[in-house]
Amino acid sequence: MKTIARIAPGTELREGLERILRGHTGALIVLGNDKTVQSISSGGFAINTEFSATRVRELAKMDGAIICDKEATMLLNAGVQLLPDPSIETHESGTRHRTAERVARQTGFPVISVSSSMSLISVYVNGLRYTVEDTQSLMSRANQAIQTLESYTNRLEQVLQSLSSLEIEANVTMKDVATTLQRMEMVRRISIEVGFYILELGTSGRLIALQHEELTRPEMPDTEIILRDYLTCEELDEGAVQSAVEKLQKLDDKDIVDLSIIAHTVGLAGTDLDSALSPRGFRLLADVKTMPGAVVERLVEQFDGLQGLMAANLDDLKAVDGIGEHRARTIRESLSLMAESSLLERFM
Ligand SMILES: Nc1ncnc2c1ncn2[C@@H]1O[C@H](COP(=O)(O)OP(=O)(O)OP(=O)(O)O)[C@@H](O)[C@H]1O
Question: Residues in domain DAC (predicted)?
Fold first, then answer.
C-alpha cells in the first residue's frame, strides 16, 4: 500500500514514470539502497542528487538500473548492472522484469520496471507484482465502485430500520439478522475497494475521496453490535464476537450471497432462516443517550433481552444498579419513542 501511494498520480516519481513511458524508453528503478543492493550492483556511477521527474527520465535513456532512496527523494546511482541471485524463482520473461522480480525478493525493496515494448509500469514488492493502470480507466472503475457503495449504504439503512421495527414488534427471524450482517459486510468490502482506488489515484482521486468520506457514516452500527445482540454462545465475550466477525469477513464472494451460510458461519441460533430470534437489546440501547457500557450490560442481563426491557416500568428500571430516577426516565422515554417511530414507519 505504501509503495502504491508512493507512485500514485501527483507524485514526482509517477510523473517521471509517465515521462519515461511517453518517451518510449524503459526503466529499472530500485526504491532503496543498502548493503544487499550494493553487493548485487556492478558498474554505473553515483548521482546523489535530488529526485525529479525530468532527471529520472533522462537517466532512463541509459542502459542499466537506477537506484533511489526509499522515499524516491534522491537519485543515488544510474547505469547500474544488477546481478541478483539467479536461483531466486521468477515467473517473468525478459531480462528487465526477471531482474526486477529477483532484486525485489532479494533486497526487500520495491523495484519498478517500465517496459518499453509493452508500455507498462510494474512494481514488484514483497513477492507481489502490481501493474499500474492508466488513470482514466481507474477513475471509471472508482466511479462505478462509489455508486455501488452509495446504493449498498442506502439499502443497509433500510435493512437496519426494518430490523429495529421487527425487534420492537418481537418479529425477528434468522433471515432478518443474516440479511443485516450480509448488507454490512457488503458495504465494508466495497468501501475497502473504494479506499484502494483512492490510494491508486493519488491527487486524481480527490473527488472520489470526498464522496467516500460522505458515504462513511460513523453513526451506523457495526457488525459487532449486531452479533452481541444475536450470537449464541456459552459466554458472550469480546473474543466470541471478534471470532464471529472474522469468520464473516473471511467468507468468499460466493458464500456472502447465501444467508444460510452467513447464519451458520457466525453462529446464530435457529434451525432455519424462518426461526424466530430475539435481540439482547445492545443496539437499541446504544441509541439511548449517555448510558455507560456497564449499565447497558446490567440492563440486558437483568431483563433478559429487549422484550423484557420494553415491558419494564420506572420502578423496575430503578432497581438496576447505576440507574436513578433521571436515567430510568430517559430509558423509558427513549424506548417508547423508538416503539412509536417504528409503528409510524410501518404504517405511514
Ligand atoms: N540485470 C540488469 N541490470 C540492469 N539493467 C538491466 C538488467 N537486465 C535488463 N536491464 C535493462 O533492461 C533493458 C531491456 O532489457 P531486455 O530487452 O532484455 O528486457 P525486457 O524485459 O524484454 O524489456 P522490455 O519489456 O522493456 O522490452 C536493458 O537494456 C537494460 O537497460
Answer: 1-135
Q: How many A from CA of 203 to the centre of ligand 1?
A: 31
Same domain (yes/no): 76, 123: yes
* Amino acid identity for residue 3 in this structure: T
The string of DSSP letters for 27-39 reads: EEEEE--SHHHHH
CATH number of the structural domain spanning residue 26: 3.40.1700.10
Tens-level pLDDT at each residue, the chain (348 residues): 899 999 999 999 999 999 999 999 999 999 999 999 999 999 999 999 999 999 999 999 999 999 999 999 999 999 999 999 999 999 888 899 999 999 999 999 999 999 988 889 999 998 899 999 989 999 999 999 999 999 999 999 999 999 999 999 889 999 999 999 999 999 999 999 999 999 999 999 999 999 999 998 777 888 999 999 998 866 677 788 999 999 999 999 999 999 999 999 998 877 889 999 999 999 998 888 778 888 888 888 888 888 888 888 899 998 888 889 998 999 999 988 888 887 777 666
Count of domains for the chain: 3
ipTM strictly over 0.90? yes
Atom of ligand 1 nearest to the CA of 117: 27
16 and 87 belong to one structural domain: yes
Whether the model pTM is above 0.90: no
In 3D space, the residue among 220, 231, 145, 147 whose CA is nearest the CA of residue 184 turns out to be: 220
Confirm or reject: Cβ of 28 under 6 Å from ligand 1: yes
Contacts of 56 (CB under 8 A, 6+ apart): 13, 16, 17, 19, 20, 27, 29, 66, 75
**Which cell numbers in the block locate residue 241?**
464476537
